[in-house]
Structure to design on (421 residues):
């Protein structure tokens, strides 16, 4: 009996494997047929196919896109220009992978040192820790990464301020490319920093920069700006600067020559309320706590809940516009997925916003209102409907004024960045 049973068991194994193989083959054939049907539909001809280089060129319609590629054996910059049918390859021989990882560790040490200093001591003095300094980090990025790229693009005249889009990968994801330069009194004249030559934005992928028919549509007459403040029930320390920040924004909007802005504000600040209001608004401004925690990253709202990355990415809103995330760690990224744009700012782009102002690490509650004030003051100064595509330029000016004021340390002005168009 046991022999019969053993024979039955052994003969059934190949049969089940064959059945499984047949099932997979049937599913594969069915999948190929479905893909062929989908690709016959207008606009879906390239569905799930690798994009041709010619299809990527429109992503550089506003300025050069620089892909920073980090591999264990070498690092390179790949530049995409709208009017060139090939990629410009810029080797970075003085920036091996080990150095990129070393700079990432240096940044972590500097940020840890900054957090350990009492707030009153941070008044623009350079933070130094065992010979490690912000100047050293930023000069390395300038000499070994950014300047070779600018030279390849022939950006040699300070003050022209063309747009440029950095698309970092690996360790580059966590480095402040937008602030690379030589700092100190001996380099006070223009021509030694990336901000002297270009206005930097970041892009998680080339696709997020591609022209969208939604953005080309004629906008509604009124700009609907949603303000979301820190709710009292978020369970986190009170941010005293939030009230000042929103008051400044209200004042700028009401004093603007353009009377075509409708301000809306969250009342209870729940996740459900904010998501509902975001669907109806053109722009959104968050002034609250933010937390970077992989796919659980989010903006801290009422009842100790977060507006999570997964909530944001499922939001369908075709309005384009600006998302200003005046919160900590909204563009930090996930170290476990360094080649993936896993942060709140990227989620806002995928949700349909055209541009995002975010932060690479924690920000000062005292300085955030000043940055917001200067950004909105420039966006609303012309008396016409503000254009979210001018937000990068507005942030560039705001941070430059904050940096040059001498009242902000590297750790407090560096984290503000622009993502998208």
């Amino acid at each position: 009996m046991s022999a019969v049973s053993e024979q039955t068991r052994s003969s059934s194994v190949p049969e089940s494997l064959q059945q499984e193989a047949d099932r997979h083959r049937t599913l594969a054939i069915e999948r190929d047929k479905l893909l062929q049907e989908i690709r016959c539909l207008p606009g879906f001809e390239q569905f799930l196919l690798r994009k041709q280089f010619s299809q990527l060129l429109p992503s550089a319609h506003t300025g050069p896109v620089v892909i920073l590629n980090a591999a264990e054996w070498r690092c390179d910059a790949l530049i995409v220009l709208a009017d060139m049918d090939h990629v410009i390859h810029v080797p970075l021989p003085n920036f091996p992978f080990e150095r990129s990882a070393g700079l990432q560790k240096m940044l972590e040490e500097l940020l840890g040192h900054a957090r350990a200093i009492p707030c009153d001591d941070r008044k623009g003095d350079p933070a130094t820790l065992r010979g490690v300094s912000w100047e050293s980090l930023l000069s390395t990025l300038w000499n070994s990464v950014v300047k070779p790229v600018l030279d390849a693009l022939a950006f040699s005249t300070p003050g022209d301020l063309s747009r440029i889009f950095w698309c970092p990968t690996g360790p580059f994801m966590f480095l402040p490319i937008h602030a690379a330069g030589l700092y100190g009194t001996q380099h006070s004249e223009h021509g030694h920093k990336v901000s002297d030559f270009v206005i930097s934005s970041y892009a998680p992928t080339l696709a997020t920069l591609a022209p969208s028919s939604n953005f080309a549509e004629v906008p509604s007459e009124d700009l609907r700006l949603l303000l979301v403040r820190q709710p009292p029930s978020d369970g986190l320390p009170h941010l005293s600067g939030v009230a000042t920040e929103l008051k400044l924004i209200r004042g700028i909007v009401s004093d603007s020559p353009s009377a075509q802005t409708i301000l809306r504000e969250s009342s209870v600040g729940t996740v459900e309320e904010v998501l509902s209001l975001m669907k109806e608004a053109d722009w959104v401004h968050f002034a609250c706590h933010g937390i970077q925690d992989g796919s659980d990253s989010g903006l801290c709202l009422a009842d100790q809940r977060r507006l999570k990355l997964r909530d944001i990415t499922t939001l369908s809103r075709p309005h384009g516009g600006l998302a200003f995330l005046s919160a900590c760690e909204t563009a930090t990224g996930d170290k476990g997925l360094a080649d993936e744009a896993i942060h709140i700012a990227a989620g806002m782009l995928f949700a349909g916003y055209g541009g995002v102002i975010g932060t690479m690490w924690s920000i000062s509650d005292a300085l955030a209102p000043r940055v917001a004030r200067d950004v909105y003051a420039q966006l609303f100064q012309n008396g016409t409907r503000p254009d979210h595509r001018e937000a990068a330029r507005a942030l560039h000016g705001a941070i430059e004024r904050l940096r040059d004021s001498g009242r902000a340390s590297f750790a407090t002005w560096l984290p503000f960045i622009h993502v998208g168009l």
User: Anything to note?
Assistant: Residues 2-39 form the longest helix (38 residues).
